[in-house]
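Structural prep section.
Before we set up the soaks we want a predicted structure of the protein with zinc ion in place, mainly to decide which crystallisation condition to try first. Input record follows.
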Amino acid sequence: MTRERLYLYDTTLRDGQQTPGVDFSLEDKRVIAGLLDELGLDYIEGGYPGANPTDSAFFAEAPPLRATFTAFGMTKRPGRSTANDPGLQELLRAGGQAVCFVSKAWDYHVRVALGISNEDNLEAMRASVEAAGAAGKEVLVDCEHFFDGWKGNREYALACARTAHEAGARWVVLCDTNGGTLPHEVEEIVGDASATVPGSHLGIHAHNDIEQAVANSLAAVRAGVRQIQGTLNGIGERCGNANLVSIIPTLLLKPSYRDRFETAIDKDRLATLTHVSRAFDELLNRAPNRQAPYVGESAFTTKAGIHASAIAKAPETYEHVAPETVGNRRRVLVSDQAGKSNLLSELARIGIRLDRDDRRLDALLAEIKEREAQGYAYEAADASFEILARRRLGTVPTYFEVEGFRVMVEHRHNALGELVTVSEAIVKLKVDGESLMSAGEGNGPVNALDTALRKDLGRYSAYIEDLELVDYKVRILNGGTGATTRVLIESRDGDGERWFTVGVSPNIVDASFQALIDSVVYKLLSAGAPASA
Ligand SMILES: [Zn+2]
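Run finished without errors. Recording the tokens verbatim:
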């Protein structure tokens, strides 16, 4: 039996940006788009070009994606032609292959929020969809408040969907904007809408205000929609959007969806899901939700209680799916085997293949566990993990030794009489048996250390010329100023390769220095630099 194709649409970079406390930089947007593209989403909505400088810049230089890169924006203003609406024209000129228009589908909102007639609202939608189609874009229409609108004025909500479809929109997306609709209502209302617009042209955009966004998305698929919109880890305004990280494995692993539908995500990509979810949390600088379905640290953790012996014999009897399918790991607190399989696959991911019985594996596993207990997070710091693993497996050359460093932070009046804070650092290294000492200044202690460290690395200096620090994140692990600090640094080189390193210490400068050193060592390692004499 041929399976029907379901399309996955990500709006992390647009609707997800509405999350309180979340504000993506241009760099963040590029990294996240890359993550989403690797995962295999069909559509990536990049933002709202014209609405803010970051989104305009993001679309001006559209990232190279396999997915359909989509711009979001408003339909034309009533009373103007599309050619005479600068906002709409900017949207049509923006990079990307598709445009998603937001349009109200609830007559109450049309009257109260827009203050225009129902017919003017439909006309604005029709003209905008046609203009975008004529500009060569694939067009989507988000029918805002569709479900509440249907309850208030069914005829008008359906007229909105019909108008979008007839004007040529590839997708008519039914939005539960307020997030309060129940799954059985979604099923009924989508069923009704699919008599007006074929399900193969319908999408669902659900918010999570009663924790039903995932259930509502699945109900909508059962009732006929073939596109699902959502965000990574369910971020979004108020209680968030439908969580794609829960929806994707459900579609791929649960027989009632797996047997009927296919997506662009294959088994190998599904196995990166846990990594993608946690890497995204690290970018947001927030702790991953341990109890997140499928990908949480606890999702496959069983505490051995009365079932201890059964769990030890056959842990899968307590799992709804196999953790490896989503890249997660089983943790049963009576057995060590799970950690080992996970480590083996992590090593394989960076190109190290070891035998299961290799003794070094046990030693490495023990060290990682010990370090994770101290606060290291290797899930988010691939480069530090690779250095640690290669070192324990005996394949990292020694490039330089750090003999010591000193950092001074001074708060003083400058020549203009202004109060300034300046930092100076001195780093002592040994390269090829020779001691090198460099001083650097910076706007803060880490910046000064970075400058000093890179000033003179002897013959390794040439290798790190194009090394650039892109991001620096600090997390205090157990509260208060006496707490442990974890520093995560993202670096990049001239070829566009990016890597993450981690440092942990009660001292923030020390933690930063560890992460800096790892970043430099990783760069030397991947450049194939020879060992120090
Ligand atoms: Zn939304």
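Observations: The chain has a mean pLDDT of 92.
Flagged for discussion at group meeting.
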